[in-house]
Amino acid sequence: MEPLASKIRPKNVDEFVGQVHLTGAGKPLRVAIAKKELFSFILWGPPGSGKTTLARIYANAVGADFYELSAVDSGKDDIKKIIGGRQLKLGGKPKILFVDEIHRFNKAQQDFLLPFVERGELTLIGATTENPSFEIISPLLSRCRVFVLNEHSEKEMEKIITRTKMKVPKDALDWLIRMAGGDARQAITTLETAEKLYGKITLDTLKEAIQSKHLRYDKKGEEHYNTISAFIKSMRASQPDAALYYLARMVDAGEDPKFIARRMVIFASEDIGLAQPTALVVANAVFEAVNKIGYPEATINLAHGVAYLAQCKKDRRSYDAVFEALDDVKKFGNLPIPMRVRNAPTKLMKELGYHKGYKMYDQESYLPEKLKKKRYLK
Fold first, then answer.
1. What phi, psi does 142 have (nearest 5°)?
2. Is 275 exposed, middle or buried (0-12, 13-18, 19+ CB in 10 A)?
């Protein structure tokens, strides 16, 4: 049975709600659609902001054959089938490949896609919730425009919910809009679940409906932040069993493995630091492995790294030191740098005393005069 979110999906740009900076009069996507201008682009925005809908509207408006893949469960073979399919050679229509969650494609998969985009064999539309500057290889990104989508406003959410034609009491509507946090798809799915399970929409039935695992673990919601917090705190407390459990929770909920690995890289310097400097090497290796491999095998790499980091000795001195130094920078501004450690590339600077008195391995503090007795790394 077709999901409600799919049934009420807008068919053209006039029906689309929100993202007026892209779809309003004279704005880039509306102009491109009106002119049937064909180009590759990336849609970067939060869940439920209309990325898939805009891609379909655009493809339909320009008269293109539309092929859709999810980077979560697709790879080179799926792209080959689309590129090599006989249907691509018929009718002379442009071919648009829409890749949802394109940030889940690793470097090798993106490299494979690149020449097809370069040669114009297909037009790429990527959708991502992650910053494309970090998640998409530079050669591919340079061939795409990037459009940034925003969360839907409360008024836009109300308009979208009204489109379902469901009877929603005011208190339930207000709660649903707040809960969804701008994610139209989540709001519609919650409504549909409540209707199917309880036969009516009330505040109570909506709250019951959202108990589903995938709705609870909204990547912008409380469960997301609670889980990553418990994960970090477990590693910090040197409790590998707890850390692995919270890792499993995130993996099971479909959390982006690169998000988890990035947190591990930060943790390696923030919490382990000088106690075991190789922790940063291991954490970076985990990130690289995850980036190249992806789920499901990347789970093994993550577990390897988590078990190692959790058991490392901890030392936050470098972390504490740099933030104490930053506080002094903000408090005192740019204090004069001692003359003897200033660079002296010209004769005039030497005559003015730049670099004068400098001694290699000097024991006297190089800090500005006002901070000479300060010790950050304790």
1. -65, -20
2. middle
Number of H helices, E strands in the chain: 20, 5
CATH node for 222-311: 1.20.272.10
Pick the CATH number of 4-148 from 3.30.1490.20, 1.20.1080.10, 3.40.50.300, 3.30.1360.20: 3.40.50.300
Q: What is the residue extent of each domain of the chain?
A: 4-148, 154-216, 222-311, 318-371
Q: What is the pLDDT of residue 89?
A: 44
Sign of CA dihedral 7, 13, 18, 22: positive
- Compute the distance between CA of residue 38 and CA of residue 41 in angstroms, rounded to an integer: 10
Domain at 154-216, CATH from 1.20.1560.10, 3.20.20.105, 3.40.525.10, 1.10.8.60: 1.10.8.60
Condensed to tens digits (0 to 9), the pLDDT of residues 278-301 reads 999 999 999 999 988 888 899 999
For residue 352, give the H/E element and its range. none
Of 132, 129, 178, 176, the C-alpha closest to 149 is 129
Fold match flag (154-216 vs 222-311): no
Ranges of the chain whose pLDDT falls below 70:
84-92, 211-222
Please answer whether residues 150 and 43 qualify as being in contact, where contact means their C-beta atoms are separated by less than 8 angstroms. Answer: no
**pLDDT given for residue 32 in this prediction:** 95
CB neighbour list of residue 33: distance below 8 Å, 6 or more residues apart: 13, 57, 58, 61, 62
pTM of the model: 0.60
Residues 186 and 214: their CA atoms lie apart, in Å, by 10
Rounded to the nearest angstrom, the gap between the alpha carbon of residue 196 and the centroid of all alpha carbons in its chain is: 32
Residue partners of 374: CB distance under 8 A and separation at least 6: 328, 367
Residue whose entry in the numeric block shows the structure tokens 């679940």 = 193
pLDDT in tens, 63-79: 998 999 988 888 888 88
The answer to whether 184 and 157 are in contact (CB under 8 A) is: yes
Beta bridge partners of 147: 43
Whole-number Cα distances in Å, 77 to 50, 81, 85, 96, 105: 28, 6, 12, 17, 13
Our measurement of the distance from residue 210's CA atom to the centroid of its chain's CA atoms, rounded to an integer in Å, reads: 24
